[in-house]
């Protein structure tokens, strides 16, 4: 270990960071740019038809990400610009690494709680209370809506998704519709809080919207969730979940892990809010809580590391296809942005359509392309807009991803978690209903907050 640390000190500082300005070529009219766009579209088509092809969604996007940046590197090297692409790619990798670490810790906690039978116990409790599938539908939806502003929409969706799978495993139709409802609710809940979504964090960090000003989006966000939920309600049979009559006891340390997960979320929020550090660092600190707890759980159970509770087995149980899918999407879209496509699209939208229509279109784009680079492009352009217009684009970018299952981290994560019960196709069937909620939330914001339709 000492030798490794010594060798690291010999590396040039430029390996880890660079403050030099990045030379950026406009490749939007270059054949490389056209080819990259075609590849990205083809990759996303494969993602959309995964349920039919059984070709995992991470494979095409990772392949395309590598090809896109390979082409960018080739163009820049041929122009004698050796390190510009490298600096830009490192920036994309840094963005992904923060998301990756955040997700990995959240998924590890979920796996640990599943192994300790936390969700199985919750399932038994819900069934014993005699709740119907319709009641469970609304309970998980409202829980997702009110937890996501604190725990972020992805983590919330994973927790509620696990509950739905535990309670409704005998009813695939219920699982599918309930997960759609969770995605919509979690995204809507995350839109009115700086901590609810990465896009709201970006707007808040930029200083365009103050912390308390986000909460004027509460009613529009609630409408975005309630309108489609009220319609989907009638697609669920009002029958009770089947009960096996068994009583499931949570294993030793299960409730402790739940508490530690709450502390982990609080740590991540505190790191960002008070210490101005990346939330992922707080999540990694939270992972250490679980690792320490696992040691004492094994001691209490008097088992060896081979057959006892092992954190690293929970890490292995994380949904790696989802984590790698995020890598492919973020790096691919980052490459398209470096070519100039995202900035060009944003400029054309705001110059040609005006702020209101452009901000509504941002939400539609976020259903197809990840909302993080879309919002980043808007922030980079920094168009002249009022506070309420910035709130509008925050709302649309947050809830627009609900239109498609691949439009948000919550949707992608639940597709992986559901093991085929919730798919792109099942979500697409309800897109018109979700779009109705999207439109209603926009009009609610414009009416309540007096946004001119210009």
From TrEMBL:
InterPro entries attached to this UniProt entry: Cit_transptr-like_dom, NhaD-like
Provide GO CC annotations from the record: membrane
Instruction: Note the Pfam families from the entry.
Output: CitMHS
Q: In which broad location class does this protein mainly occur, judging by the first location in its UniProt entry?
A: membrane
Q: Name one GO biological process term.
A: sodium ion transport
List each copy of the Citrate transporter-like domain by range.
Answer: 44-398
Q: Give the keywords, sorted.
A: Antiport, Ion transport, Membrane, Signal, Sodium, Sodium transport, Transmembrane, Transmembrane helix, Transport
Bilayer topology reads: Multi-pass membrane protein
- The region annotated as signal peptide is 1-17
Q: What is this protein called?
A: Sodium:proton antiporter
Q: Which domain of life is it from?
A: Bacteria
Q: Which family does it belong to?
A: Belongs to the NhaD Na(+)/H(+) (TC 2.A.62) antiporter family.
